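Aim 2 progress. For Dehydrogenase/reductase 1, the working sequence is reproduced below.
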Amino acid sequence: MAAPMKGQVCVVTGASRGIGRGIALQLCQAGATVYITGRHLDTLQVTAQEAQSRGGRCVPVVCDSSQESQVQSLFEQVNEEQGRLDVLVNNAYAGVQAILTNAKKPFWESPASLWDDMNNVGLRGHYLCSVYGARLMVPAGRGLIVVISSAGGLQYLFNVSYGVGKAACDRLAADCAQELRCHGVSYVSLWPGLVQTELLKDHLMKDDNTEDSLFNLVRNRFSSAETTEMSGKCVVALATGEEAGDSWGRERAWRVCMVVAAGSGSWLQRWLRNTPFFSLASGDPKDSNALFEV
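Predicted structure tokens for this construct:
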């Protein structure tokens, strides 16, 4: 089995399930050593066991991304055990249940705490991890940081707190990329499409609200949606610099990942210019201009 990332060290936050889990599986399959984080060791160990069966090595670490002391400890552990960090994926997010609970409520009818639910573990945690991750990458003159965002940063989706947080994630990628550019470190924002996560699947199976047009749209397209490992394929392609357009095209799901804010002026930026991405709106691979360069 090819192992294009053998010898590389990665951190994926929020990897107990969903997109983070899928990314960790693909990175291990590519041969990397992957540190995965979450709040519960038992679920992390399940992910780690499957990831290691794919190849590579997977190390579960209990870490709350909203707590700076725990984030600092995570990266100290990586540095002490590996002495390097090649890829950081900022994925941890604790707002999904709050989105479902407050669906269709305008911001003034939602609890003010919804802002913290959306952005503490998300945006704030992504910034904290970026700070400590960059401190390992910059001295080495190499690295890739990915933040998981969404089209909600470009147009209204779910609620105000969600959209502002995702727009800020994209701005985080763009501005960090600007400061990291001269140090050989790239920072990108990755937009998955509709993803077959465990939580969304459970919600669709339980909720019988057929009057909600958005709910019906998601339910109808869920079976052909992106797998949780699709984003992992994108991250591996970015980390290895391979042209992966053809293999992505065979997924044929309603999605796909859009990359925002190319971080370096070298191979990554050239690769991004030439890589075809599906249009998120149409799902048509002929619409290949779904790339925003900042």
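The CA atoms of residues 190 and 259 lie 5 Å apart. This observation will guide construct design in the next reporting period.
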